[in-house]
Specification:
Elements lengths: L1 H15 L13 E2 L24 E5 L4 E3 H8 L9 E8 L6 E6 L6 H9 L3 H4 L5 E4 L4 E5 L2 E5 L5 H15 L13 H9 L2 E2 L8 H17 L13 H14 L19 E3 L29 H17 L3 H6 L1
Parallel strand pairs: 1-9, 5-6, 6-8
Antiparallel strand pairs: 2-4, 3-10, 4-5, 7-8
Helix pairs in contact: 1-9, 5-7, 6-8, 7-8
The structure holds 2-acetamido-2-deoxy-beta-D-glucopyranose (2 copies).
The site of one 2-acetamido-2-deoxy-beta-D-glucopyranose (NAG) has 2 residues, from loops.
Length: 327
């Protein structure tokens, strides 16, 4: 059921995408980090693991209701028995509005460790993520429509930065466009002018290339010059194109506060199901007919195919697992 929905979306996208380059990242590029970017997490002197974070308070929701997106992940995607979902408000010191976290009770990631890692993401960037979720599974992650989902025990900051970078990729799309920055001629041409790319994962699409480049920029902005690790001259065009908007957002700012949190209003609390106690005024049972994406969950087709591809890849291949596990 879900598949047929995805296929439909893809057909629609092909039409909408006419005129947008679907070229591959040049396959002849050498890889600056043949073993992946996990090495940036724990370099001598700590690497990204030395990122500063903010403290937070966790308040668990009462059993019975869950955000719509988490209900769908449990019931439609089968990530968790819906009655085993734990939902938390995580209120970081740098933002009055809490983030909502969903965790399946069998996730190997504790809510404390999970929220701590997310708190390492500078608020200037973190505010462009909505729900964070954690389920059991092979180490992998994806970002779909600004909601970030992790499988397995993922502690490497590079994975958190990578996923949030997909959101920033959309944020920095040219005004009035429905695409993402990594698919603009500016970025594609910059990559074409380079002779290397970050790593194998970056070769799979421009979106992943941008997200991996962003991890390098975050390292450069928060730990030490990235050129202390690898000489980035062979990818300076892509690096500089992305750094123009990413360098400042990755810098830890001790007095930084959230300024434009994304709204969670289109994912209201819904009842887990008939066996859960729910307040009278809540939607009694979440309604998710097979094969139909509720309108409020839809994204422009130009983004949708890329987002879905990202999700499928995470589920299918655990593409990031290798470097997530190293972290
Ligand atoms: C969680 O945060 C929302 C939004 O601020 C608030 O309305 C709700 O009461 C909070 N729930 C708990 C259990 O703290
Ligand atoms: C993890 O990966 C292995 C090997 O690809 C696969 O057999 C297994 O089903 C996966 N486990 C989960 C929970 O997805």
């Amino acid at each position: 059921m879900v598949m047929s929905c995805i296929e439909l979306v893809q057909v629609a996208s092909v039409v909408a995408l006419a005129g947008i380059s679907l070229a591959q990242v040049p396959p002849e590029h050498s890889r600056l980090f043949p073993d992946g970017l996990g090495v940036l997490d724990s370099r001598p002197g700590a690497g990204l693991n030395s990122m500063q974070g903010v403290s937070f308070e966790a308040t668990q929701w009462e059993f019975g209701t869950v955000p719509q997106v988490c209900y769908n992940a449990a019931v439609d995607d089968g990530y968790c028995d819906v009655y085993d979902l734990e939902v938390y408000n995580i209120t970081y010191d740098d933002c009055a509005v809490p983030w909502t976290f969903c965790r399946c009770s069998d996730s190997p990631m504790s809510i404390e460790a999970f929220a701590e890692r997310v708190g390492w993401l500078p608020v200037a960037a973190r505010q462009y993520a909505r729900f964070f979720s954690s389920y059991r599974g092979n180490a992998s992650a994806f970002s779909l429509g600004n909601d970030i989902t992790f499988f397995g025990r993922i502690v490497g900051p590079s994975v958190y930065i990578h996923e949030l970078s997909h959101n920033l990729d959309t944020l920095y799309a040219p005004p009035d466009s429905l695409t993402s920055f990594s698919r603009t001629d500016e970025y594609v041409d910059a990559v074409a002018a380079d002779s290397c790319s970050p790593d194998n994962y970056a070769m799979t699409s421009y979106a992943e290339h941008y997200a991996q480049t962003s991890v390098m920029i975050a390292y450069d902005a928060t730990v030490e010059p990235i050129d202390n690790v690898r000489n980035t001259r062979c990818m300076r065009n892509a690096f500089n194109a992305a750094r123009e908007h990413l360098a400042s957002i990755w810098q830890f700012d001790e007095v930084g506060r959230c300024t434009s949190r994304l709204s969670e209003d289109d994912s209201p609390p819904v009842c887990m199901g008939p066996e859960a106690p729910c307040p009278e005024d809540l939607i009694r049972i979440a309604f998710s007919p097979p094969g139909v994406v509720p309108e409020r969950m839809q994204f422009p087709p130009e983004l949708m195919d890329e987002e879905l591809e990202r999700k499928r890849r995470a589920e299918r291949e655990a593409g990031m697992g290798r470097y997530a596990e190293k972290a």
